[in-house]
User: Fold this.
Amino acid sequence: MTELIQEIVGTLLFYVLFFGIGFILNMLIKTTWLPTWLYIIIVLPLGVWHFWNPELSWLAFIGVFLWPFIAGIGGALSSGWAIRSLRKNGYRMF
Assistant:
């Protein structure tokens, strides 16, 4: 039961973390989809490299780390959509 709670909390934290980082990067650098590409190119390979355990099967690895990785990419995409809609509605950041 505690593993399930940890998985849920970790997934939510990944979403919030990458939404926040992506939103701040979008405000400062003014590129809408840069955080998404950075997540795909840098964070996913580093996450797989760091958490990969040779004793773990590929299916078990995907089962444990799939939801946080999906939540992270969802947070990065959500930040891009949020900034794009804010800019479309006339808001300017810096």
Notes: The chain has three helices and no strands. The mean pLDDT is 90.
